[in-house]
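haha ok so turns out i had the wrong file open the whole time. this is the CORRECT one, sorry everyone. sequence first:
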Amino acid sequence: MKTKVLIAVVGPTAIGKTSLGILLANHFGAEIISADSRQFFKEMNIGTAVPSTEELNQAPHHFIQHKSIFEPYSVGDFEKEAIEKLDSLFKLNNIAIVVGGSGLYVDALVHGLDEFPEVDPSLREKLNLQLEVEGLESIQKELKLRDPDYYEIVDTDNPHRLIRALEVSITANKPYSSFLNQEKKKRAFQHGYVGMQAPREIIYERINTRVDVMMENGLLEEVRKLYPHRDLNALQTVGYKELFEYLDGHCSLDFAVSEIKKNTRRFAKRQLTWLRKNPEILWIDHNASPEDMINRTVEFVKTIQHA
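then structure:
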């Protein structure tokens, strides 16, 4: 029986992971699991760059807009549900594809989640109060002091992630990052990471263009509809929080858009920092021909199946 292989398509935002995932899915007759945590929510469409209807019709996709922003949904929930889905997919095909810009979610599926100490709920309440009274910057500074390594890769604009790292660091009296990359869970499949790469200036140019297209496609109207729910965790993300600031009257629309571009570029930089620590990735240039992308991936999968 041939080895089951999960191909993880990774890379910075706006580089073309969706297209590569569809290309590989069609070649292998496989289905795609999305591990982009921003695309799980059906109320968030334009600002999360959800694949178009045309793209979704080109290959079967799972875990896209399957939840509401009003439902709590953690990386642990995703791991459990995605493993169940993979089990069913592998009964039909030896290959499955996972595509995502959320490194934590991809790694949770590939390797399993790391084990963390139990946290006293009162500590979480205290940190949430600190966030409310002293602002995001105070949380950022404390995490940078306690765990500079994790600070380099975390989305520093996401208070939920920052508080989670802080509460673990404080509880254990050691950095949150020291709990990462523990002994991995045994999976019933092998895996291979296929990463898309491009010069940084190309990545940044694509990000800037994507934001302009989002605005043309009605991102401001989407954010305006979500404004009454702006405190929900799902909405504490790039593209939404900057426009909430504009709707609050704290800045001009042009400034808000420039902040979306800047913060998305920062996000891409953190994604690359995370990915460069992974020696397993087969890197493919973003402008390689489709044939080359397929051929290199096919050879890569063969080496995994025969390892």
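The chain has a mean pLDDT of 93.
again sry for the mixup
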